[in-house]
Each structure stands twice: as structure tokens, then as C-alpha cells.
Amino acid sequence: MKMSNGLMGRRLLGLAVAGMALVSGGMAFGQQPKPWEITLQEAATPVMENIISFHNLLLVLITLITLFVLALLVIVVVKFNAKANPVPSRTTHNTLIEVAWTLIPVLILVGIAVPSFRLLFQQLDVPKADLTVKVTGKQWYWSYAYPDNGKFEFDSLMAQDKQPRLLGVDNEMVVPVNKVIRVQTTGADVIHAFAVPSFGIKIDSIPGRLNETWFKATKVGMYYGQCSELCGKDHAFMPIAVRVVNDQEFAAWVEAAKKKYATNPANTYASAGGQAAQ
Ligand SMILES: [Cu+2]
């Protein structure tokens, strides 16, 4: 069968569009990595929205700079090769150009530094929290404690039978929507890292140290992350699943969780000084 290039291109494009529709159709339940994803996960917090716009700004800048340098290289190769330009110029100094190629990059870097520092400050300056969740990384699962809501703590392990594969857990971390959640994190054994891409957070969970970050999810739904510090043989199998719900659902969940986890061995983890029952 013979096919013209144009026809072939259109068929491939059609196939790609159909594939993308298939992927997005299966994505009704929340934020997680998607097949063939080439950009950042969709934002669910103001911080992540700002990270994405900063990323887009940098992408435009780096593209323009790369094209400019490429154009200069092409001009040099075409106009100033030995054949086209047998007698080279003996110029060694040009004050105007030297000042320009020093000053313009400095101005560009300062221009990048301003929004960059603003974003960094927003990430690091924890606003007044509505709720604190203490997240402990363990080999190889997470524990979540709710000191403001009855001091219960529970383990969250990857569930083989749950979807999405390798991201579903038995007990999800649950938080209310549009509330500032302070995340305090530590490691019980080795260094782990608590990361949820659509919240724009990634912070090390270090034994003997309490690290702090925050997020304010503005959309209800399920959000997935993974441990992001190589922590041992099951590093790839300690996913993070966060369910963002409205206030009433959160209050109901807290009441149920208090009862459900009242006898959880995880609550005695610290006092027992040993392995939590899994
Ligand atoms: Cu880990």
C-alpha cells in the first residue's frame, strides 16, 4: 500500500489524538502521572500554579536565547568560513559589544531572580495553619498523625489490589479543601522524601529532624505522590495518596478515624521503640 507523506502524517496525528482522548478519559479520578505526559502535573494549589507559570516563563526565555545563539553560530559558519572570508578581520576589541554581552545576561538573570525568590519565599514561609499533619516516612510506608484532631495516627501502605497501580494505598491521608495544611515530616529509620507533584511540595523526611512545608489544595479529589529519596529495596512501593474533601466530609472522616485507629499499633510505635505491626 502506498501512502503520501501528508496522508501518513494525518493518520499518525489522528492516532495520537485518539490515544490522548483515551488517556484523559480514564483520568476522571485525580492527579497522577499520565502515559506520554511531557509537562508538569496539573496544579491543585496556588504554589503549584506559580511553579507552572515560572516554568513556562523560563521555557520561553531559554527558547529565545537558544535560537539567538544558534542564529549567531549559523552566521559565523556561513559568512566567516575560510572560503567565504579568506582575509579575516584583525579586530580584537569592541567596547560596545563587550559591555552589551556582559550587561544583557546580567539583566536577564536579575529578571529571573525576582520571580524565583518570590516563589521560594511563598514556598518556605508557612502561613497560619488550619491543620497540622505529621508525616513519618518508614521502611517502606508512610504514617500520618493528626495532632489537632484527636491525636490518632495510622499507617498507609501500598495496596496491591487498588488502582491506580503502584499508587493506591489502604489508608489515604485525608485533608479538607481550601485549608492551609502544615506538613511536619520526619524519618523513622532512613531518609525518605514526601512529594506530591500537583501540590508543588517535595521535602526530605530525615531521622532526628522535623521538616516543615505546607499546601492549600483548592480542588477536591485524589492526588498521588511517591517517596522521592532512595530509601531501600521497597522505595518504589511506598506511594502517597491524599484525598481532598469538603469540611463536612472531613469532620465525618475524623470521627470515623478516631474510632478506627484507636487501637492501631502505629499509635504505640514510639513508646514501644520498635517495629510497628504491618
Ligand atoms: Cu522512602
From TrEMBL:
Any Pfam family hit = COX2
One cellular component term from this protein's GO annotations in UniProt: plasma membrane
Judged by the first EC level, this protein's enzyme class is translocase
What cofactor does this protein call for? Cu cation; heme
Q: How does it sit in the membrane?
A: Multi-pass membrane protein
Where in or outside the cell? Cell membrane; Membrane
For this chain's UniProt record, which GO biological process terms are given?
A: ATP synthesis coupled electron transport
Boundaries of every Cytochrome oxidase subunit II copper A binding domain copy: 128-256
| Domain Cytochrome oxidase subunit II transmembrane region profile span(s) in chain numbering | 32-127
Catalytic activity line of the entry: 4 Fe(II)-[cytochrome c] + O2 + 8 H(+)(in) = 4 Fe(III)-[cytochrome c] + 2 H2O + 4 H(+)(out)
Major location category of this protein: membrane
Q: Which terms in the Gene Ontology molecular function aspect does this entry carry?
A: copper ion binding; cytochrome-c oxidase activity; oxidoreductase activity
Q: Where are the transmembrane segments?
A: 54-78, 99-121
InterPro entries on file: CcO_II, CcO_II-like_C, CcO_II_C, Copper_CuA, Cupredoxin, Cyt_c_oxidase_su2, Cyt_c_oxidase_su2_TM_dom, Cyt_c_oxidase_su2_TM_sf
What keywords are annotated for this sequence in UniProt?
Copper, Electron transport, Membrane, Metal-binding, Oxidoreductase, Respiratory chain, Translocase, Transmembrane, Transmembrane helix, Transport
Record EC number: 7.1.1.9
User: What note does UniProt attach to the cofactor annotation?
Assistant: Binds a copper A center.
What is this protein's function?
Answer: Subunits I and II form the functional core of the enzyme complex. Electrons originating in cytochrome c are transferred via heme a and Cu(A) to the binuclear center formed by heme a3 and Cu(B).
Family note: Belongs to the cytochrome c oxidase subunit 2 family.
* Protein name per Swiss-Prot or TrEMBL: Cytochrome c oxidase subunit 2
| Gene name in the database record | coxB
